[in-house]
Amino acid sequence: RRLACGDVEGRLEAIFGRVRAIQAKSGRFDMLLCVGNFFGSTSEAEWAEYRTGAKKAPIPTYVLGANSPDTLSYFPDVSGCELAENITYLGRRGVYSGCSGLQIAYLSGTEAQQQPAPAHCFSAKDVAELKTSLLSAPNFRGVDILLTSPWPRDVGTFANSAGEIDTKKCGSKLVSDLAASLKPRYHFAALEKAYYERLPYRNHMVLQETPQHVTRFIALADVGNTSKKKYLYAFSIVPMSSMEPAELVKQPQDVTENPYRKLRKEAPKGKAPLSAEEEPACQFFFDLNKHQGKKRPSDGKERGDSQPKQAKKPPQPTGPCWFCLASPDVEKHLVVSIGTHCYLALAKGGLSPDHVLILPIGHYQSVVDLSSEVLEEVTKYKAALKEFFRSKGKRYVLFERNYRSQHLQLQVIPVPLDLCTSEDIKEAFIAQAQEQQIELLEIPEHSDIAQVAQPGTPYFYVELDTGEKLFHRIRGRFPLQFGREVLASEALLAQPQRADWRQCAAQRPEEAAQARAFRRDFEPFDFSLRD
C-alpha cells in the first residue's frame, strides 16, 4: 500500500500529521511518494528539525528534486541521497526498484527552455537516457509508477475535463513522450495546484497490437490548500512482475484512447512495416485464413483456380430505392459523374456545396457487399476526389453508416487543410464517440472494412484521404446523424446548425446550379470521361 502527495512546499508538519492520522485509522502504508515542490521559500525552520534528527518522518518518504533555483541547495547530490532519516531524494532521473519488484521511474525538475539546461531542469537528453535504460531491457512491458513534477502535455485528450487546467497548453511535451514510452500503470504529477484523476487510458492500438495494461494519471494539489483540493492519494499496487498477464491487461469499462497517440505514431519504428502483400492476414480482427473470408487476389482470380471469377449480380431492392441509378426516385439533377459501376452525386442538404456521395449504380447495401469490380471503381473515385479537393486546399473525410439504410452511401465531405490536421479530425470523432459511449477504434492501415466486418453486420466507419480508418461495430441503437454532427461541430467545421441535412436542403434550381458548378470544376479529374 502506497501514498502519493502533491506539492509539500515545506509544510512538513501538515503532510506528516496527515499521514499519521491515516495510518492510525487505516493501518500502515509502505511509502510516501512526493511530486512537485517538496521544499518552499519558508521551509528552513520546519526542515531543520527533520534534518537534525529532532523529528522523524513517520513513513519512508521519497521526493523529487528542485523545480526552481531557490530550492537547489536542499539537494546536495544530483544522483540522489538521504536528506534526513526516512526522507530520500531519488535523484535527477532513474528507476527505483523495491525489494518486492515494484519499479518506480522518476524525473526531477521542469522542462528546460534553454541549453545547457539549468540544474533544476531536465532536457530531451535526460528523457532519452531514461527511456533507453528501460526500453533496452528484454521483454520490457512498462513500469509500475512514473513520478514527474510537471503534467504531461495533452493528457486531457479523449478524457474527462481537467477543470480550469488547459491540458493542451499546460505541462511538458517531454513528459508526454516519456509517459508514452514507459507505459506506467500509475503516473503522478503536481505543480498546477489542482487535483485531476484522468480516466484510465490504453497503451496499445486496438486490433493492431497485443492488449496491454492501462495507465492511470493522477495530478495532486498542494498540501494544506485552502480550497480543500485533494493532495494525498492512497493506492494499492501489486508489482507488474508478480501479476498474471491476463489480470494485468484487464481493461476497465471507462478506458479511453491513449492521449499521446500522435507521439506514438511519430516515434521511429524498430522494424520496417510489411508491404500490403507481405502483411500477415491474421493480424486483423478476423483470421483471413479461416472461413470468414479470403483476401482478394490482385489478378481477379482465386488462388489455385485458373478460371476468372464470375461477376456477381447485385441483389435487387425490396422496394423503391432513392439511390439505384435506374430508379425513377433518383434525383438525377444532383448527379455529377457516372462511371461503369458507380456514380457521384451531390448530397441533398450537404454540409457544404461540394459534399458528395459515392454510390454504386446497382443495389448494394454496404462496402462489405461490393463485388471486386465495383470496389475498384469506388477506389478510383476516392483517388480522383482526393486529387480534386487537394487542388482546392482541402482534404476529404469519408464515412459510411451501414445501419437503417438499404443502399450504400459513401459520404465525402471536404475540410480546409488550414482548418485542422488529420489527427485533429480523428481526435474529434473519437472524443465525441466517447461522450456518447460509442467505441470507435482505429483499424490497421492496410486493412479494408471487409476484413473487420462480415456481410450483414451493422457498422459505422470513417476514412481520411490518408487511408487512416476508424470503425464501430453497431450492436444496439446508433445516432443516425453522428458523422455529420462530428464534422459540423465547433472542433471541425464549426457549423452545428448544419448537422441535420433536413435543415440544409435547398430548392431544386439552386441544387441544379451547384451540381453544374461541381461537374465543371471536377471535369479535369473525372476518369469516367476518359475511360
UniProtKB/TrEMBL annotation:
GO molecular function ontology, one term from the record: RNA lariat debranching enzyme activator activity
InterPro entries: Cwf19-like (IPR040194), Cwf19-like_C_dom-1 (IPR006768), Cwf19-like_C_dom-2 (IPR006767), HIT-like_sf (IPR036265)
Residue spans of biased composition, Basic and acidic residues class: 296-306
GO biological-process terms attached to the record: mRNA splicing, via spliceosome
Domain named Cwf19-like C-terminal: residues: 310-418
Domain Cwf19-like protein C-terminal per the UniProt entry, residue ranges: 436-527
Region (Disordered): 248-276, 291-317
Pfam families in the record: CwfJ_C_1, CwfJ_C_2
Record GO cellular component, one term: post-mRNA release spliceosomal complex
Origin superkingdom: Eukaryota
Family per record: Belongs to the CWF19 family.
PANTHER family: CWF19, CELL CYCLE CONTROL PROTEIN, CWF19-LIKE PROTEIN 1
Protein name from the UniProt record: CWF19-like protein 1
Source species: Irena cyanogastra
Name of the gene this protein is made from: Cwf19l1
